[in-house]
């Protein structure tokens, strides 16, 4: 396997550890974009890192040790063990950026699918997005651009042509007439940051922390409008009866008929859950073509659960307040298993939680939080439920 030059390997390590400076990141990006071989090595490296991180869900392994093993495999397969300590800051989830939109067709999508390749079209988005501290835009040729929320400039494609503009934390794409080729960009948001994008058809997308969206630079006349999402997003979909809007979540598609709904698809969950607030949506297996008979249409106030194993759908009444609390910047637990609470806190605050109190793992709790820090959330559990904990760097240990 090709190896990184020593100084580039140092930059990559800083990149993974969330300690890279803007100058260093620019240098790393320049190296990545220098050749297809460099880009492939970088992608392979992040892929192996993701694999090491994903073990924690299945086996609750020490992720620092797993990361060290990944480094050994890539850099020194027969050498001594390289010791690494990954340090991350505890961040607030920060939902305040979301505003209540006033448009008629609003789509709320909540997806976290980890690491997937969607229909061989979705470029691999590593789970390490939550470890990074840079907003990036990947162009159709694989080049990676770093975006900051203080820029006001034109948005260029790989040929140097203007396709839109950036103003602060928002990208706006222009509609290009007579374009017949689908060209994709991928916007990736790390944990602790948010970004807004307006697609070429006028659809607005608010991306939450730890999310990635692959989308056409320009939608093609006569074809469906299809995007691919990992993470969490709030969609305000432009109505167009001739061009259905499809959101792919890996194993399931959601077809938009003018609606507002919430979609949750975490990789470790057995079910993909769609909660309809208003309007209408149809859910169906991503491997099947859409038909009225192959899809399930939801009524407002109901939830569809798509079982990943059996590929079947069940429908029941939904708790809308709890399912859509994140839109208002809240986290609500109602008779929720503590093990599930841990998963949600890890996602929202970019921390690792080790529960050594197995007795409470299967207990259910009720609580709600409004933009509190992780320290405040933990202290609330300690005060109300007598749950002891300690914080060591970005790791939380429940006693």
TrEMBL record:
Location of the Protein FecR C-terminal domain: 330-398
Residues covered by the FecR protein domain: 190-281
Molecular function GO labels: sigma factor antagonist activity
Domain of life (superkingdom): Bacteria
InterPro entries: FecR (IPR006860), FecR_C (IPR032508), Ferrdict_sens_TM (IPR012373)
PANTHER family for this protein: PERIPLASMIC SIGNAL SENSOR AND SIGMA FACTOR ACTIVATOR FECR-RELATED, PROTEIN FECR
Name of the protein in its database record: FecR domain-containing protein
Organism: Neotamlana sargassicola
